[in-house]
Amino acid sequence: MAAFSSPTTGALVFRAIAIAEACSWAGLLIGMFFKYVVVRDDIGVTVFGPIHGVLFLAYVVITLMVAREFRWSASTTALALVASIPPLATLWFERRARRNGQLSAPLAAE
């Protein structure tokens, strides 16, 4: 059974989550900068910390679903998961996967 209604939907969901996760990373980093350098107030971390946590978990789950849907190799799946750790690396991986055709319809679905 397919995880998404169509391969295009899976690719769009993956792209949206990858972008959102990267934006939440940026927000968290800005919040940390303000907390520790500028105003010594943790409101940015308080706001972006939980948002980033939820989006990080969503990225991991969606990555595993998309990897299965598009039949990614173990190394590609591992790279996608590792990309969730450094700031903004999910953007790099999403562009790489799109460029390499890894977010196109799998052969069995055609």
UniProtKB/TrEMBL annotation:
Transmembrane segments: 12-34, 46-66, 72-93
Organism field: Pseudonocardia xinjiangensis
Location relative to the cell: Cell membrane
Alphabetical UniProt keywords: Cell membrane, Membrane, Transmembrane, Transmembrane helix
Name of this protein: DUF3817 domain-containing protein
Pfam hit, one: DUF3817
Topology relative to the membrane: Multi-pass membrane protein
Sequence ranges assigned to domain DUF3817 in this UniProt record: 13-99
Keyword Cell membrane attributed: yes
